[in-house]
Amino acid sequence: MIFSAKLNHFTQQPHWLRDNHYLHHGHRPPTESFVSCVKSAFFMHNETLNIWTHFLPCFLFVFLFMKTLGAPNLSGTDKFVIGSFLTGAFLCHMFSTAFHTFSCHSEKVARFFQKLDHIGIALLITASFVPWLHYGFAYIEPLYAHSYLAAVVSLALLSIWFSLDDKFGTAAYRPVRALVFVLFGGSGGVPALHWLYIHQDIIWTHVNLKTSFLSLLLMGALYIFGAALYACRVPERFFPGKCDYVLHSHQLFHVLVTSAAIVHYIGISKLLEHVKSTYEANVDIQPLNSI
User: Cβ neighbours of residue 247 under 8 Å, at least 6 residues apart?
Assistant: First the structure.
């Protein structure tokens, strides 16, 4: 990576590109060119790591998706359930990559890809619920799984509708954006407590169940911590102009989101192992996360 000579100070940016006033230098000016936007990914500016921290994990999710499809010991339902989560994770990361790459094209293009980015977040949250609800409840009482999933889809549609509002994408609504998605993801606390109540007698004596539950808690903590950094603009608010290129809140948010998705994949793979060994004892299941 090398630094581009055509970078602006925050005060030189048009209003629609002024997102974080704690980042002083390294802002790309409007290009009006998709080719220039793509080329800029190979120069150092304050969006460079935002691009790569979500583009590179896309390859991991594609690999895991293909691995899941090719697993001979998984049923078609298993492949659909796990594949749904991996597809959501891929789309979230790819939409985010596209937004951070093309955000400097023009106001119209930036707004479009920002909405796509927000939709990607909603898709990831929704897809994260699918395998956990399926393996957590479908083998016990399908009605629970279907009811919770219906509620999740309803919240997802509401979040997407909210994301399509132009005001939602402005810098002033950054805390609101974070809160909306935290509340959406946090709604999983209801089925989580329900699941914990059902399995309270065995959760700490079954390694896979315990690992799955702890993974769920860690995933939630990573998402919430990342959203808090993003909303509060930490650490750059304490070091204005010092985190312009590296270690600002959006980059940290990306790393934590990816980490949470990987932790969740490990957790649902352990839950899958438990379900198969408990309810389908004759099925020989290999750990999904044995890469």
Answer: 235
**CB atoms < 10 A from the CB of 155, how many?**
20
Q: Which residues pair with 8 in a beta bridge?
A: 27
> In this structure, is residue 289 part of a structural domain?
no
Prior bond of 235 cis (ω within 30°):
yes
Cα three-residue angle 103-109-115, rounded to 5 degrees: 80
- pTM here is 0.91
User: What's the CA dihedral at 68, 131, 188, 252 to 10 degrees?
Assistant: 0
Residue 233 lies in a domain: yes
Rounded to whole angstroms, the Cα distance separating 226 from 221 reads: 8
Residue 290 within any structural domain of the chain = no
At residue 285, the pLDDT reads: 42
Q: Is residue 282 scored above 80 in pLDDT?
A: no
What CATH number does the domain containing 271 carry?
1.20.1070
**Percent of the chain scoring above 90 in pLDDT:** 71
Full residue range of the structural domain in which residue 149 is found = 2-279
Would residue 258 count as lying in a domain? yes
Counted domains in the chain: 1
